[in-house]
Design goal:
This protein has 3 helices and 2 strands. It is mainly alpha-helical and about 80 residues long. It has a single domain, classed as Winged helix-like DNA-binding domain superfamily/Winged helix DNA-binding domain (Arc Repressor Mutant, subunit A). A two-stranded antiparallel ribbon has the order 1-2. α2 crosses α3.
């Protein structure tokens, strides 16, 4: 996928997380990506996308290393 396509997917995922709320895991994103209109990226794509949004400061990571999940970052977290 092109860099432009990846950025569009990340923006769309972030928008979806913002409007849906809740805990986001690799499995939840992967299920979303497999739904109509999202295409069918691999599970690794979902994992990398969550990690990238975390790296950029949009998500906060929680839980143990073998079961972590992400939440939308808030101003209270020191992020926007």
């Amino acid at each position: 996928m092109s860099a432009r396509g990846q950025e569009a997917r990340l923006a769309r995922l972030l928008n979806h997380i913002g409007s849906s709320g809740g805990r986001w895991t690799t499995a939840r994103v992967h299920a979303l990506y497999r739904s109509p209109g999202w295409g069918a990226p691999q599970r690794g794509t979902a994992r990398r996308d969550l990690a990238e949004l975390h790296r950029r400061g949009h998500l906060t990571q929680h839980g143990p290393a073998d079961g972590h999940y992400y939440l939308l970052a808030t101003r209270k977290d020191g992020r926007s």
